[in-house]
Amino acid sequence: MELRTLRYFIAVVREGSITAAAKSLHVTQPTLSRQLAALEVELGHALYQRNRQGIELTEQGVILRRYAESILALADKAEEEIALPTHSIAGKVHIAAGETQAMELIARAMERTQAEYPGIAFEIYSGTSADLMDNFVRGFYDFFLECELRSHVDMHTMKLPHLDEWGLLVRRDDPLANLAAVTAAELVGHPLISSRQGVKVGVLGQWLGELADKMDVRATYNLPLNAKFLVRQGLGAAFTYRGLFEANAMSDLAFVPLSPALESTQGIVWRKTLPTRQAQAFLDKLREVCAEEPSSTRADS
């Protein structure tokens, strides 16, 4: 398979028809059709079917789209880095980040990096730790801001001087809002909302212990911002970190901490292969920012 052919295929998927794709690629429709037909012959499977709306991918076409997008993204990233002048400190730094206030440290380091190296730009990707880690391992990101930092034998890690406090985001009229803190036992029978990882893993699973099986989880979320709307509609109380939402006396939402208190350690992860010059410049600034924090307990591995 050639990269050009994969780009043709992705263009057809994106545009929804061969005619529109040919126009966007500035090639003739017969040329594009021949390229796609040759790709199907090479793979031994039909990749799409025509219908009144345009095209619909077959099962094999869906699989190829997933891999083609990954291959093309990595190829573009490689071309971008190779094209930089030999001694230039410029280009993009790709950072995957879970939702945490530790992002403030990352943002501070980004600002300092750009102040010294105006040619550096940043791309931030948000999502669950599981989804982000998968793409991080495959090489899409330079760094991964991991919530609940774990040990990674084949990677470098740096603990950030920040702890996130767990609690529940609730509606102001929820009985839980009147509590100074909530225990696991008090959550039994109460409708809850959790991250997609669920309530049986990580530090939250340890905190709930045997009561995790008794939690009434009505919905799960990918990003905490979506959980806010579920809470507002009365679907339940959402497990989250303090400070991610406006939850004060003037808000219709309240944050209730857990009892006993529960905190998560956050950290940055990067591969042991030599980082790009721009990635190293950012890492140096991040170390600088962390060293200035009063409660800094930074430890590289």
TrEMBL record:
Pfam families: HTH_1, LysR_substrate. It comes from the Bacteria. GO terms for cellular component: cytosol. The keyword Membrane does not apply. Keywords: DNA-binding, Transcription, Transcription regulation. SUPFAM superfamilies: Periplasmic binding protein-like II (SSF53850), Winged helix' DNA-binding domain (SSF46785). InterPro entries: HTH-type_LysR_regulators, LysR_HTH_N, LysR_subst-bd, WH-like_DNA-bd_sf, WH_DNA-bd_sf. Belongs to the LysR transcriptional regulatory family. This is LysR family transcriptional regulator. It comes from Adlercreutzia caecimuris.
